[in-house]
Amino acid sequence: MNAGFIGIGRYLPERVVTNHDLEKIVDTSDEWIRTRTGIEERRIAGDDVDTSHMAFFAAEKAIENANLSAEDIDLIIVATVTPDQPFPSVACLIQERLGAKNAVAFDVSAACAGFMYGVVMAKQFIESNTYRHALVIGVEKLSKVTDWNDRNTAVLFGDGAGAAVIGQVSEGRGILSFELGSDGTGAKHLYQDEYIIMNGREVFKFAVRQMGDSCINVLEKAGLGKEDVDFLIPHQANIRIMEAARQRLELPIEKMSVTVDKYGNTSASSIPIALVEELESGRIKDDDLIVMVGFGGGLTWGAIALRWGK
Ligand code: UT7
Questions:
Q1: Could you tell me the CATH superfamily of domain 2-169?
Q2: Burial of 101: CB neighbours in 10 Å, binned 0-12, 13-18, 19+
Q3: 204 CA → ligand 1 middle, Å
Q4: Does domain 174-307 match CATH 3.40.47.10?
Q5: Could you tell me the residue ranges of all domains in the chain?
Q6: Residues near ligand 1 with C-beta < 6 Å?
Q7: Catalytic residues
């Protein structure tokens, strides 16, 4: 039995905050932000929209896209480091709102790699025949833990949600291989105290090395090579980090998903949001080989190789 993506959805807040808007708040410039990160603007949720609201909107779309009803969902995994409150989990909050009364629901904390962790967990439950339909959501409201006076972090992050229903797909399709990893010795480089604290250079070095390694590892595990990759969906943290991964795979530029310019770094939601955009634009087709790869605070990382289609 193969687990794969059978429904997808995303939600982005309407409010756009441009680099020029940030120039008025911190000592930065549009030019610095663009050239160092690739970010032009990001979405910021209003006070009345918390993490669970964004998760709900994305989840509703993914369930509809999978042609299922909420009662068909057996498992809800929400990847987030910005839950509405420490408990109950965001997963339980949206279970109630969706009416997914048959689901087991919990959150996973793996920062920007969280969606990869969630998808791999879902795969285990589907392929062991424990559950039939798993809803995995990456969602963050990073704006509420961002110090808007700290130019090292304020320019990087955005809010959003991306969701996928993972279920059984046909032979040869679905998640072919994965890699997950953690290195708690790097916890000091990226964490939340009251606000996000980051040693950008250390995270950058780790990310460049790990993103490339993980892509190569999942391809090897699937018995495939760089030349087989049709599309790369990297965590949208910084265009320079993403470019390093693309070059490791020797992929042409049009085969990598880029949304960091519009949404900034949305942590756990960046990979599923990018996936939805690529599907909506028709750039991903059935039987394409896709590599998704993420890294984040923890330190954590995760990648999958996936043959698209139901
Ligand atoms: O999802 C995981 C989350 N984290 C990441 O992915 C972060 C990974 N790291 C990065 O993306 C990059 O390290 C940054 C974008 C955070 C920083 O880029 P950098 O090329 O590593 O810059 P830097 O930290 O080496 O700083 C270069 C200069 C410094 O000035 P001096 O010391 O050379 O005078 C900084 O103070 O740029 C300055 N700087 C800024 N200037 C204008 C730092 N932030 C800003 C800013 N605007 N926002």
A1: Thiolase/Chalcone synthase (3.40.47.10)
A2: exposed
A3: 9
A4: yes
A5: 2-169, 174-307
A6: 28, 32, 36-37, 112, 151-152, 155, 198, 200-201, 203-204, 207, 237-238, 265, 267, 296
A7: 112, 235, 265
